[in-house]
Amino acid sequence: MSGTPNALELRDLRKSFGKTEIIRGVNLKVAPGERVAIIGPNGAGKSTLFNLISGRFAPTSGEVVLHGNRIDGKAPYEINRAGLSRSFQITNIFPKLSVFENLRCGVLWSLGYRYTFLRFLSGLDDANERAETLLKMIKLEKKRDVLATNLTYAEQRALEIGITIAGGASVILLDEPTAGMSRSETSRFISLIKEVTQGKTLLTVEHDMGVVFGLADKIAVVVYGEVIAFDTPEAVRANQRVQEAYLGSHVADAQAQGH
Ligand SMILES: Nc1ncnc2c1ncn2[C@@H]1O[C@H](COP(=O)(O)OP(=O)(O)OP(=O)(O)O)[C@@H](O)[C@H]1O
């Protein structure tokens, strides 16, 4: 092997629930710094793929390799410490803590300070500093001391991303990051995601083709548990098989929306 290892690599990954094989031999190589959107019809296996990568499910067979090291079968927290962080939707936010406190929790958790109180105290200054930086990155300085429960929906999603990147992971998984947002919130949010994940490797599961084409360097099309295409947005858009299996109507929608 030569050169830098891929940020993430899936090798003949398979997952069955009972007798049904849901993920059916997925191979994928994601280079460091690449932004990849995973698209596909409902029930194709996109969330399952995310769950396999982030450690929520162990694969039935195959490998998940992060920066050259196998992480399949490891616990989610171990995978997180190894440098991969997944957004857990708004449910991961503490509603009765302020924006700043939420970010600081994210930092401390990622550093493992929850385990010993002495380490916690010595790490607090660093954590405060890092939380201030994150606050600026997600553009919520003015909401610093507002309780998370009182944020708008879009602000909560920004906070969720702040918590996701708090530990400095180099590979970030975002689950439908703009779901439920208005058109204008969505386009602002795409810019924010690009900014805060600059230089990192990003994987998103996404249904909104406007977001996919605005965000992704590459698109992985999952149909019935297999990746049927993995290429640039232009190439995927032009791919006959993808058109037939999935994309035709979605691209027409996105184009009609001016993307
Ligand atoms: N824990 C589970 N046990 C049994 N079957 C499951 C489990 N999780 C997912 N499945 C099945 O796996 C298939 C793929 O589901 P998955 O949620 O990964 O699809 P998806 O592409 O993310 O769909 P959507 O776009 O609707 O979110 C579905 O048929 C689903 O019912």
UniProtKB/TrEMBL annotation:
InterPro entries hit by this protein: AAA+_ATPase, ABC_AA/LPS_Transport, ABC_transporter-like_ATP-bd, BCA_ABC_TP_C, P-loop_NTPase
UniProt keyword annotation of ATP-binding present: yes
CDD domains: ABC_Mj1267_LivG_branched (cd03219)
GO cellular component: plasma membrane
Top-level taxon: Bacteria
Keyword annotations of the record: ATP-binding, Cell membrane, Membrane, Nucleotide-binding, Transport
Entry keyword Ribosomal protein: no
Domain called ABC transporter: residue spans: 8-249
GO molecular function, one term: ATP binding
Gene3D superfamilies per the UniProt record, alphabetical: P-loop containing nucleotide triphosphate hydrolases
PANTHER family given in the database record: ABC TRANSPORTER ATP-BINDING PROTEIN, CONSERVED COMPONENT OF ABC TRANSPORTER FOR NATURAL AMINO ACIDS-RELATED
Name of this chain's protein: ABC transporter ATP-binding protein
Organism: Variovorax terrae
